[in-house]
Amino acid sequence: MIRVNDGIVIDFTDWSEFKKWLNGTFSSLRFVYSDDGESYEIIAIDDRVYRRLSINKSDASEFETIYKPKANTSLQPRTSDGRVRTATSKPDSSSVTIYSHDWTDRTTWYSESARIVDEIATDSGDHLVYTLAHGSVIDTYHGLFTGEDYLKDASGNSYRAVVKVDDAVKVEQDPHYATGGDYTINYATGAITFLSAQNPAHEVKVTYNHAVTSGFIVKPAIGKKLIIDVAEVQFSDDVVPTDTVIFQPQGYAGVFAPQLGLPPTTLLPLGDPVKYKSMSDYQNDALRAYPTYQPIGGSGWRGMPKGVAIYDWDYLREKTLYSSYGMQIHISLEHDEPFGGYYGTATFYCGTENE
Residue 90 above 90 pLDDT? Predict the structure, then answer.
């Protein structure tokens, strides 16, 4: 046995003895060798212990056949019963937090919304109030969900409504001041109210998105994998669960069911969905809950006027979604019926890495 600066080297002279030790702990090692043309020097590394054997090539047929193909790779450290050894530490991958729609408010259901360009709004007759063909206009201006300012659709368009009069862009009243600007919008009804009467000869054109379904998708960016570490739901204490929330994993047919002969990127359900029909379903399935957060911030648009209950899923086994497999989780209300009450949403705390 030789002690070196960074560990201990144990020299073996007999292949059969080295092999007995190697077979017992092979899966826990980084296993390397060198080749001088006549012999192999084999080094197995376990923590700071190096076990070394030199063997002539004429006696190395078993090594060449069975062990050599597995060498020179970093192998996962394992316990004696085969479980992967782990160390408690924070991951070094980039992080991303994903926020679902508010299930109580259709004006937040942007994911599968429809985009309308330059619709001519209908004058109610007083030249102040103009109505759109659709209600449930997506609102990304009043703090209804985190990150709203930077949301873009698949074509790179903002979800922010744009109002023009005689093709001149007008300014929506800033909610911070609650004064000024040219107009306000009732996003639920699709009514636009100007602060001064418009010329009846001018057209009011509006580009906007309106909710169609409650569908929301959690998926990795192209070329990435998304590692879901923690998921949680938050409900205001007055929430009324009027519909079933469905979590359905999906993936490419070409990866998960090639025998079906479907186009490779056809999305298929991966197993049964998880359905939450009642509040007891959330309570039964969650790993933990927190004391109800007290109302805070007042009754204005910046506050949370209701208490909020939080249920947590802290996954002991990471949930990984691979972009190349088309893996995603589709979240929806079964009948697209909004919850009653002030607030209800889900948050996913994730890591993201290259595949």
Answer: no
